[in-house]
Design brief:
The protein is α/β, with parallel strands linked by helices. The chain contains seven helices and seven strands.
Length: about 260
């Protein structure tokens, strides 16, 4: 029985035969890693699949919120580059995250206060100003649901074990699911001696204390610990905020009020 995700998300993933290995791993252990690939070519193919899984997750979060299947979805994007992907002009995820915010998803963007990885060199001044303006516009439009959280990442954890995104989903049946992805921005691939394996975690809250889901529980604890230490919030803080926000019936966008 698939307990790693709500039925709508399991169904969406199973529609793509290329994801059979991913679905099988998540279903049995709640965890998938590109490290299981014996060759680099296979690892690269798996990375693309992992990216596709993340987009599929976020698309299903939007659908679930719109249909009322999900009551709250709280997300945290953790990147070594400010506000990826909301600061970019367009990526595969940008329109999905726009819809996520518009349907009331709670999103925290976590990134270094200072760019210790030299990321600004990848943008000229005009591009950097445009990216900052785009992100500022999102913050103005979604003041209650888009949380800006720059951090002092002196240990470079955002480029190591924390880089990626995590999600908590509360369904209409009051079930809670944890989702997490450990991935790297294309601009930083190959710039660090750290392993560049991409990973996925997914599991149902009531099952997280079982042996089968220990790895999911540890990932959630690691993310929560990092967020709490660096920002004063964690994933459950975001989930609780979502509950309060939606109980008041506030429109997500200030332009809809």
């Amino acid at each position: 029985m698939d307990k790693f995700a709500p039925p709508s998300i399991v169904s969406a993933l199973k529609k793509n035969p290329e994801l059979n290995d991913v679905v099988s791993a998540l279903s049995s252990t709640g965890y998938f890693s590109t490290a299981c690939a014996p060759q680099e070519e296979k690892k690269e193919a798996y990375r693309k699949l992992v990216n596709g899984v993340q987009i599929s997750w976020e698309q299903e979060f939007v659908k679930g919120l719109k249909k009322g299947e999900f009551k709250i979805v709280a997300a945290a994007i953790l990147t070594p580059r400010p506000a990826n992907p909301l600061s970019y002009k367009i990526t595969d995820r940008t329109p999905v995250l726009e819809k996520f915010l518009k349907v009331g998803g709670i999103l925290a963007c976590v990134y270094p206060e200072t760019n210790k990885l030299g990321v600004p060199s990848l943008m000229n001044n005009e591009e950097y100003a445009a990216a900052s303006a785009r992100y500022s516009a999102y913050r103005q439009e979604f003041p209650d649901t888009l949380w800006d959280r720059p951090v002092d990442d002196s240990t470079n954890k955002l480029d190591n074990i924390m880089s990626g995104a995590s999600y908590l989903v509360e369904t209409k049946n009051n079930e809670i699911y944890t989702f997490s992805i450990h991935s790297f921005q294309l601009q930083t691939l190959g710039t660090s001696p750290l392993p560049r394996d991409w990973e996925l975690w997914s599991g149902k809250e009531l099952d997280l204390n079982s042996r089968r889901q220990e790895v999911v529980c540890k990932r959630r604890a690691d993310i929560n610990s990092f967020l709490a230490h660096q920002t004063g919030i964690d994933m459950f803080t975001l989930l609780a905020h979502g509950r309060r926000f939606h109980s008041l019936g506030i429109k997500a966008s200030r332009y809809e009020r």
